[in-house]
Amino acid sequence: MTYDGPAVGQAQVIRRLAGSMARGAALVGVVTSLVCVAVAAVSVGASGVYGAAFAGVVATASALLTPLLMLRTTTLDPAAVMLASFVGLATKAIVLLIVLFTLGNGSGLHRMSLAVTLLVVFVATTAAEAWAGHKIKILIGSDPASSGA
To answer: What is the pLDDT of residues 61-78, one digit of tens each?
Structure first.
């Protein structure tokens, strides 16, 4: 008897992992954004605050794209979940580049504050997602309730 569907308990594992990733990315994104806004306020002024605040909101919101895509693929094969995770990361980077290049020349936003905050929050939230995936303890192996265990 062969089974080609998702592994037993896969949906619960992915939900747990995505929740941990979302919490970590949101917390780190908000804290990192606030630090960037404070630095921009001191070094540049109001236009730096606007640029850093906008970049922090966009980068933190885009960081939640990967866990969302993972949640939407919980019932699919593990390869589809991994593909969705990669697509989330790539889409996040593309969105941040589009924001930088389209709004970087805006009159009310300081371009360097926008760029630095986008980059710093992107790296910090991606690291937080990776750390969340590393720290979560998931039992991988045969089902303990099965007769072969």
So the answer is: 998 988 898 888 888 888
In contact, 55 and 99? CB cutoff 8 Å? yes
Give the model confidence (pLDDT) of 88-106 as tens digits: 889 888 988 888 888 767 6
DSSP character string of the chain: ----SPPTTHHHHHHHHHHHHHHHHHHHHHHHHHHHHHHHHHHT-HHHHHHHHHHHHHHHHHHTHHHHHHHHTTTS-HHHHHHHHHHHHHHHHHHHHHHHHHHTT-SSS-HHHHHHHHHHHHHHHHHHHHHHHHHS----SS-TTSTT-
CA-to-CA separations, 106 to 35, 48, 114, 116, 126, in angstroms, rounded:
22, 12, 10, 16, 27
Task: Give the tokens for residue 38.
Answer: 């404070």
Among 39-43, 111-115, 139-143, the range of highest mean pLDDT: 39-43
The amino acid that residue 30 corresponds to is: V
CB-side neighbour CA atoms (13 Å) of 122? 20
> What is the pTM for the complete model shown?
0.79
